[in-house]
Amino acid sequence: MAMTEAGTPSVSVDIKRITVKSKVRARLMMHSFLILFALLMLYPLIWLAVSSFKPSNIIFSDTSIVPRHFEWENYTRGWQGVAAPFNIFFKNSFVIATLAVIGNVMSCSFVAYAFARLEFSFKKPLFALMLMTIMLPVHASLIPQYILFNSFGWVNTILPIVTPKFLAVEAFFIFLMVQFIRGIPRELDEAAMIDGAGPIRIYFSIILPLLTPALVTTAVFSFLWTYEDFLTPLIYLTSIENYTVPQGLRLLQAARGASTWGPMLAMSLLSLVPMVIVFFIFQRRLIDGIATTGLKG
Amino acid sequence: MSTVQNLSKKQNAVAFLFLSPWIIGFVLLTLGPLAGSMYLSFTDYDLFTPPEWAGLKNYEKLMGGDPRYVSSLKVTLSYVFFSVPLKLGFALFIALILNRGLKGLGFYRSVFYLPSLLGGSVAVAIMWRQIFSYDGIINHFLWTYFGYDAPSWITSPDYALGTLVLLAAWQFGAPMVIFLAGLKQIPQDMYDAAAIDGARPFQQFFYVTIPLLTPIIFFNFVMQIIGSFQAFTPSYIISDGSGGPADSTLFYTLYLYEQAFTDFEMGYASAIAWVLVAIISVATLASFLSAKYWVHYGDED
């Protein structure tokens, strides 16, 4: 890089005064830009929220941000769904997402503990294989998996969606936890070992409690991704009483007519509510999780 | 000696006990299926009658015998080509502004991240479809303020894919968070040293920030490429599951889904899936090979 002379001390005081002033102005400009941009980014969601309270026939003609009166009928009619009510879809979604959380937290923490702390044969190649599966597109194994689960008679049950989570198939959670466990001081393990604890006791009494932050991150992402997943339920859940929320929304969309816009938008908004709540409770965890491991988010 | 051996044997056994979920999952749900779909890609299989060996027929069909496949490939390539740079551009631009020590960083970061979190859902795709429909809010705005009678974006073969690219760009928050984390890693001394050398902010940006950020740019680039090739839900919802109008939003994965699970062409769909794996591998490999020309690793000089 080219060398040039720095300013002499006598003029630097004046320069400082000027730069402070212009800095304040620059800051104000940046804040106004960011706030405008944030509003633009959130506008679609605001539009969705407002429109879900408007009568179907004026959703497009009336663009005001404040609805003149609240059309609760969108919600009551939407909740009835097309062929089954949304309480069934929400129940199915929550059952699947909860089992996915339990499965991922348990299986991935077992596996991560082995990779981070235990010595075993073929450790390096197995670890490399595990990392490679993170990059592998799900579509590569989709069809044979379907054939396999179909031969078990599992199609139209939640088993093809939930079982893989208990088999640590979502390998980035293993990676996330391995990274975290590597940060836990080994002295703790060694002290426990001297006290006669074996690997299993060390896992349960030392690693698992200290791993809590990574477990929470895993739980939150497992919940969100399983809850919003559309492709897997679309393939495996074939009868309406087993549908998840995204499938229920798709039903509403497919039966669309001008009169169903309101209910469809109402249910779309409602389906986002659990995700937004989880986001607000765990936003620090989520953002740290992405920042440290580059999860797809 | 023998007790040590016993101990390590015992630890091996315990380790494989902990590993067992992953090993079972890897063999049964990844390795086996990979081999299975490789085999199926050389067969005709409809799920109900046993697979019939078809040799290279499926792959030959992919090489020009199937216009819809060719459109799905074109659509997906242009989606990746436009959406990844746009998304990363926004992500980097906003991250740079947020990294200047402004107050309210946490607030802005959360607001910009929220679309990334919700963006893959059916609900957001439905919302997007309504916003860009003929009588949607965008056209209402264009008509009221510019008197411009805009086309129906969603049902026009020329613009439908553009709405999906915009939907992807809207979700720039996740790579932005990663950029922000990377920008925080750049030590202040680097900027101080550059300032002493007389580098102005503009020069600092090009000679300090960008080079030191290239590993993160590279990481985001590879992850976004891999992810974009696999996008499914927005194309399905915006096109009503058809990939229309005129196949203009027929994503690769949507065509794969249609062949496998609507037409039950499991053999052909397996070939489609393997070509996707090949395309993603080549794209990833090419990125890694290009890395040595533009990605700057700190310990080099």
Structural account:
The complex is a heterodimer of chains A (297) and B (301). Chain A is mainly alpha-helical and 297 residues long. Chain A has helices spanning 9-51, 73-80, 86-117, 123-135, 139-151, 159-166, 171-182, 186-194, 199-210, 212-228, 231-236, 245-254, 261-293. Residues 1-10 of chain A have low confidence and may be disordered. With 301 residues, chain B is mostly helical. Helices cover 74% and strands 1% of the residues of chain B. Chain B has helices at 2-40, 57-65, 67-98, 105-118, 122-131, 137-146, 160-170, 173-185, 188-196, 201-229, 233-238, 252-262, 266-294; strands spanning 43-44, 52-53. A two-stranded antiparallel ribbon of chain B has the order 1-2. In chain B, strand 1 and strand 2 form a beta hairpin. The longest helix of chain B has 39 residues, at 2-40. Chain B is globular, with a radius of gyration of 25 Å. Classes of the chains: A mainly alpha (297), B mainly alpha (301). The interface between A and B is large, with 98 and 96 residues.
The general outline of chain B is globular
Which chain pair shows the most residues in contact? A-B, 98 and 96 residues
Beta-strand residue percentage of chain B? under 5%
Helix content of chain B: over 70%
Query: What percent of the residues of chain A sit in helical stretches (DSSP H or I)?
Result: over 70%
How many strands, what sense, and barrel or not for the largest sheet of chain A? none
**Main sheet properties of chain B:** 2 strands, antiparallel
Q: Sum up the overall morphology of chain A in one term.
A: flat
Q: What series of H and E elements makes up the topology of chain A?
A: HHHHHHHHHHHHH
N-to-C order of helices and strands of chain B: HEEHHHHHHHHHHHH
Q: Would you tell me the structural class of the helices and strands of chain A?
A: mainly alpha
Overall pLDDT level of chain B? 91
Q: Can you list the strand order of the major beta sheet of chain B? A: 1-2
User: Averaging pLDDT over every residue of chain A, what do you get?
Assistant: 88
Radius of gyration of chain A using CA atoms only: 26 Å
Structural class given helices, strands, pairing of chain B?
Answer: mainly alpha
User: Low-confidence stretches of chain B at least 5 residues in length (pLDDT < 50)?
Assistant: none
End-to-end Cα distance of chain B, whole Å, is 48 Å
End-to-end Cα distance of chain A, whole Å, is 38 Å
The helix count of chain B comes to 13
Number of strands of chain A: 0
